[in-house]
Amino acid sequence: MTTGKPGSTASAFRQVASLLAIVAGGIVLVGWAFDTGVLKSILPGALAMKPNTALAFILVGLALRFASLRSSRFGATVPQLCTLGAGLIGLFTLAEYVFAWNPGFDQWLFREPAGAPGTSHPGRMAPDTALCFVLLAVALAASRRPVKFRSTLIASVALGSLVTGVSLAALLTALTPEFQAHGWWGLTIMAPVTATLFGALGATLVVEQWQEASLRWKWPFAFATVTLLLWMGVWYYRAEVNRIRAATYEEIAAIGELKAGQILLWRRERMNDATRMAGGPLVRKAVAEFLREPGGPLRADLLERLRIERTAGGYADALIFAPDGKLLLAAHATPAPPTPATQRLVASALASPEAVLSDFFRLADGTIHIAVTAVVRDTAGLPLAVAVLRSDAATYLFPLIQSWPTPSRSGETFIVQREGDFVVWLNEARHRAGTALALRQPVTRTEIPAVQAALGRRGMFEGVDYRGEPVLADLRPVAGSPWFMVAKVDQAEIFDEARSRTRLIMLAFGSLILLAATVTAFLYRQEHAAEAVRFNAYNRNLIEASLDPLVTISAEGKITDVNEASVQATGVPREQLIGTDFSDYFTEPERARAGYRQVFSEGFVRDYPLSIRHTLGRVMEVLYNASVYNDEQGRVLGVFAAARDITSLRRAEESLRQLNASLEQRVRERTAELTAANQELESFSYAVSHDLRAPLRAMCGFSQALVEDHGAALPEEARGYLEQITRASRHMSELVDGLLTLSRCTRGELRREAVDLSALCERICGELARAEPERRVERRIQPGLVAHGDPRMMEVVMSNLLGNAWKYTGRQPAPVIRFYAETADGRPWFCVADNGAGFDMQHAGQLFQPFQRLHRQDEFPGIGIGLATVQRILHRHGGTIHATAAVGRGATFKFSLPEPETKDTKTS
Amino acid sequence: MNHAKTILLVEDNPQDEMLILRALHKINLANQVDVARDGQQALDYLFQEGEFAGRAGSDLPAVVLLDINLPRVNGLEVLRQLRADPRTRLLPVVILTSSDEERDRLRSYESGANSFVRKPVEFAEFAETVARMGIYWLVVNKPPTE
Fold first, then answer.
1. What DSSP letter does each residue of A75-86 carry, written as one string?
2. pLDDT class for B23, splitting at 50, 70, 90?
3. Buried b vs exposed e over A136-149: b needs ≥16 C-beta within 10 Å?
């Protein structure tokens, strides 16, 4: 068996059944070993179990028991061998029966003497026992297959049911005494213990497979089983009734036959009596003498003879009538007065050469009599007189008819006679007084057995008697008479007997059905309980599987239930969470309280933000969705709250925000660079269009002026040269325009790297000093100042600023140039300061405009492009520059460059 | 206010100054030209302030030839101040510049310039322009009288 789960009902069934089989088999074998009757049959007085049967039971029990211990050292081999053994025992025995073969297999364990009760072959198990073992073995083998193989499942259940059915039938039939005498076809009978064990084993198979079966065919099967059981019960009942009816009929037929024989005998005796009395020559002579001389001496002799006849035959009276019907002599002292019946009697006697037995007739006193007559004839054969022997029916005949030789409540016999269209009861019925010659039924009432008898029917008849009772009757004519014998018993009595027999059996069937129903209901309930448990576990698993902390809160704000995610979020064990205040686990308890109060007042909250505090200090940002839950009456029981962890969402939002900010910063930087570049281009084109033209104009103008004013004084060759100057100037003007166009299309790339401004500063100052060696300028340079920018452009910036400082300190007696760094507005500034001419801060706005100058050419020469260039470079880097100065007190230019964002960003 | 037949030339480029003066000289207007070399000097001249305080012949010139690109105070600022002052509100001002920027022209007229003349690179053209301008403003044009 592959299916029994430890602890299940099926498993319990299996344990009990296997144990029963092994123990019972063992006991029986011990009984055989010590030849102890009680042990052989277990049930006292019952048939004994055969040794082979006991052995097979032990094998089946072992197979059942060890199949459930598959992991044991026995493995699958032992159960398989046991199953095979039991099946072979059954098969071998069946073969013995079928082939009428006796190799001594039945006696190989123990010898059984011949003539044991219910045993056709000594020591051999019953044929149905053998069949049951074969079926069991096949069922066990089938159920070892994988359960999902449905046909084996069905086969197991079917075979189990069959075994149970056979055992049940065997058990039932074993209870009937007739069967005990004969068995099936006169073969060995299954012992009650054997039948019981088969019932248990079959039921085990059914129950085990039942649990594995799908619901689709479970209930049809249950229905079929119950129907089968009921049908078997009904069948058995009907068989029993038929059997009892047959037995009863046999009984009443015997009684009827007996009675009919007795009546026939009685009639013969009466006729013989009459013949003997009338036929003897002495009687004839005496009668003849008496007739000649009525007062003669023979009168006394005749009277004596009549008395003797009366006494010896037990007659009511013995009489002699004259052929004319006149009473001549009577044994009785006071003979009954003659009636018309007497006259008819005499007449019928005269008509017959033999003795005649009359019909029953009623005397004046109401008693019923029957008379036998014989004619006394003379030698010529002429009638002299008629001898009559009259019997009182109540004294002998009626008791003879009525008496029932076996005890019976309703059994009776009576005789009837047809009179025209009626059937007349001749004697007193058992169940109604005064029926003799009084009860008449028309022949049309053929349901009445007596009518059927009078109509000539013989044998068994079921009908309704004079009382209206259903009866079983035996009908037969009484030979040599117009009478018909009816022996009958009420059907009720027969059924009573069957019922009393069947009641026990029906009770057994009822119990079985009830047991089956109970087991089914129990299994069904267990299945459903298991289903409910599974369903509940499923629901709980759903809750526990949620990654969102789920919690239920009572109306007082206490936690009533939590899932694992809540435990994880708070770091507090479930047992400690339940019963505590919900708001305790948040960074803002008041806000949490406000949240669940809102749920109670509004019924729900959606995306209510809170922060769960873990015991380890970390905080989980969550959004709460909560709603109230109600009982069946709609009363609010509490709040069901589900938290969605949005910590990572928040983190992502933050990084997104930072990314956006840095993007914006970069856009600003780019825009600044672009703006600077645009300004540069614009200014460059402005310069080209405006200021570069002036020198060209001068060259061209003065050349022309020279030709105009002094052309006469100039040789032709000189005028040619001037013409060349004019032409070249015009050409350059065109070149300038071309360059301008070119510059507008060109933009340089900006490289950012660390530049040592201090070193750069030293170098430029050195170059300036070498260019004007006569000047003495004091330099104060802070070492180690590093900026991030394009090195070439940084050199341009520093050259311009330092060049200006050098230039504008030209008229200062003690010139000082300083380079240093300071921090303002949270960022570093590089400062180039001098103590030169300075400028008016009023005009500081123009300082960085291209070609704007705050000094005249004759004061300080220059083209006004340097500071504009400086500013544009710094703007392109995203930096700024501003100047502070005072006229005659020097100027300070401060610039800053943005710090690199990340170390790996070398370019932008 | 009397309108003397003089021209104020505001020009920081000495070569341009020479060429303009030469052109005016050719049409005999050179002796009526005063020259300022930056914006501030021009304003001082016109408002008789600074070095020109108590200048002889306090009359305003017939016309101011004003460059835009000037040291210290640029031409457009000079023009703004002139227009802001009631004395010079109606003084004819001609912007005479190398620039051919649309922006400069627009700003000049917006600031109240009477005329905008670009200095050509070509000498002959330049001389003729200056001559015609001088004749126009000194001879042809009738300034408003107050």
1. TTHHHHHHHHHH
2. confident
3. bbbbbbbbbeebee
Q: Residue B65 pairs with which residues in a beta bridge?
A: B9, B94
Nearest one of A385, A276, A271 to A329, comparing CA atoms: A385
The segments of chain A whose pLDDT lies below 50 read: 1-7, 71, 741-742, 744-747, 903-908
What are the chain B neighbours of A853 within 8 Å (beta carbons)? 71
Q: Cβ B13–A689 below 8 Å, yes or no?
A: no
Nearest CA in chain B to A698: B15
CA–CA separation, A646 and A636 (whole Å): 29
- What radius of gyration, in Å, describes the C-alpha atoms of chain A? 71
d(Cα A441, Cα A425) in Å, to the nearest integer? 9
**Which residues 6+ apart lie within 8 Å of A182 measured at CB?**
none
Chain B residues whose beta carbon lies within 8 Å of the beta carbon of residue A705 = 19, 22, 123
Q: What is the pLDDT of residue A663?
A: 92
* Interface list for chain A against chain B, based on CB atoms closer than 8 Å: 686, 689-691, 693-698, 700-705, 726, 729-730, 733, 843, 846, 851-857
Q: Do A698 and B71 touch (CB under 8 A)?
A: no
Q: Which helix (H) or strand (E) holds A881?
A: strand A880-885
What is the average pLDDT across B58-87? 86
What is the C-alpha separation between A803 and A746, in angstroms, rounded? Answer: 27
A449, A488 in Cβ contact below 8 A? yes
Taking only the tens place, the pLDDT of each residue in A712-745 is: 888 888 888 888 888 878 777 766 655 554 454 3
Burial class (CB in 10 A: 0-12, 13-18, 19+), A724: exposed
- What pLDDT does A235 receive? 79
Q: How many CA atoms lie within 13 A of A234 on its CB side?
A: 6
d(CA A140, CA A155): 10
Q: Is A608 helix (H, G, I), strand (E, B) or coil?
A: strand
Q: What is the pLDDT of residue B58?
A: 61
Output the 3-class SS for A768-827: HHHHCCCCCCEEEECCCCEEEECHHHHHHHHHHHHHHHHHHCCCCCCCEEEEEEEEECCE
**Residue in chain B lying closest to A851 (CA):** B69
Q: Are A306 and A381 in contact (CB under 8 A)?
A: no
Can you give the pLDDT at residue A55?
Answer: 92
For B:107-136, CB contacts with A below 8 A are 119-124, 126-127
- In angstroms, the separation between the Cα of residue B101 and the nearest Cα of chain A is 7
Residues whose CB falls within 8 Å of the CB of residue A736, separated by 6 or more in sequence, listed in order? A688, A692, A693, A696
Output the pLDDT for position B3: 46
Could you give the ipTM of this predicted complex? 0.73
Checking if the pLDDT of B37 tops 90, the result is no
Q: Contact A168/A232 with Cβ under 8 angstroms?
A: yes
CA A401 – CA A260 distance, rounded (Å): 8
Continuous segment of H or E residues that includes residue A504: helix A491-545
The C-alpha of A729 sits at a distance from chain B's nearest C-alpha, in angstroms, of 9
Give the pLDDT confidence score for residue A903 in this predicted structure: 47
